[in-house]
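Module 6 notes. Inverse folding takes a fixed backbone as the condition and produces residue identities as the prediction. Think of it as a translation problem where the source language is geometry and the target language is the twenty amino acids. Below is one complete input and output pair. Work through it position by position during the lab.
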C-alpha cells in the first residue's frame, strides 16, 4: 500500500512541476515583436547620415541607414 501512495505522490509532483514550467513559459511566448524606425543625423549639422549601422545589442537584428539617414528594424 505504501508504494502505491508513493507512486501517486511522485505522479502528483511531476504534474505540479509540469504546470509550473508551463506557467513560467507563458510570458516568453506572449511577447510581441514590433518594429523600430528612425533617422540618424550628424549632431553638429543635423544632416542625415547614410550607411550607418543600426543594431539591437545581443540580437542578430541589424540594418543600415538609407540615403536619407532613415532605418527600419523588423521583428524586434
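Target side of the pair, the amino acids:
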Amino acid at each position: 500500500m505504501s508504494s502505491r501512495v508513493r507512486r501517486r505522490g511522485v505522479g502528483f509532483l511531476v504534474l505540479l512541476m509540469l504546470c509550473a514550467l508551463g506557467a513560467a513559459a507563458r510570458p516568453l511566448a506572449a511577447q510581441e515583436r514590433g518594429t523600430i524606425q528612425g533617422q540618424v543625423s550628424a549632431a553638429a549639422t543635423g544632416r542625415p547620415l547614410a550607411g550607418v549601422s543600426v543594431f539591437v545589442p545581443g540580437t542578430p537584428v541589424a540594418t543600415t541607414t538609407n540615403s536619407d539617414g532613415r532605418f527600419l528594424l523588423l521583428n524586434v
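Reference fact for the lab report: The helical segments are 2-30.
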